[in-house]
Design a protein that fits this description.
The chain is α+β, with helices and mostly antiparallel strands and 74 residues long. The protein has a single domain, classed as Fe-S cluster assembly (FSCA) (GMP Synthetase, Chain A, domain 3). The protein is 36% helix and 27% strand. The protein is built from 2 helices and 3 strands, in the order H-E-E-H-E. The chain has a 3-stranded mixed β-sheet, covered by helices on one side. It is globular.
Length: 74
């Protein structure tokens, strides 16, 4: 399984914790994962910062070769 597929699998695994926010994998290169977080205007949405913390913790835990997870603008 390639790196992008592994990251997508992790995102899918933690997706329920994002509430109604949309999270898209943009790129993975040189140990950096770029994601786009599209926040919901609904009150049920989790903050973008919380989404990023959850993602970074989970990805780094399962993929030690990843140094950083960054958000890119929608």
């Amino acid at each position: 399984m390639n790196v992008e597929a592994r990251v997508e699998k992790i995102i899918d695994k933690v997706r329920p914790a994002f509430g109604v926010n949309i999270v898209e994998l943009v790129d993975v290169r040189d140990g950096v994962v770029e994601v786009r977080v599209i926040p919901s205007s609904c009150a049920a949405g989790v903050s973008r910062e919380t989404v990023m913390v959850l993602l970074e913790e989970q990805i780094k835990d399962e993929m030690p070769e990843i140094r950083e997870v960054v958000a890119v603008e929608p």
